[in-house]
Amino acid sequence: MGEQLPAAQGARSLDVDLPDGSGDAEYLVALEKALARILAEFRPGLLFYQAGVDPLTGDRFGRLALTREGLRRRDRLVLEACRDAHIPVAVTLGGDTISTSTRPWTPTATPSG
User: Cβ(51)–Cβ(105) under 8 Å?
Assistant: First the structure.
């Protein structure tokens, strides 16, 4: 399996380990399953979503191979699941690629009522 989760981070409630180089399809299937479990088991009153870009292909810290479209689909999946479950979301951005990419950062999802 991959090494996307450093051991130094300590204990977590749910880890989803993917093989290095996993792309959009594998990532999104795993995310959908994990998200359903998280929302059902934890029932958060507020979800803090760190919309990082480390999973992008070629990111120097990530070991996955998502495309920008994969990130858009990821964001949409998370935000729509929270909307459907009536869970408010606080979104933050993160990742080295945002500041070093030659292509400017653009939103991957838009707010909806």
Answer: no
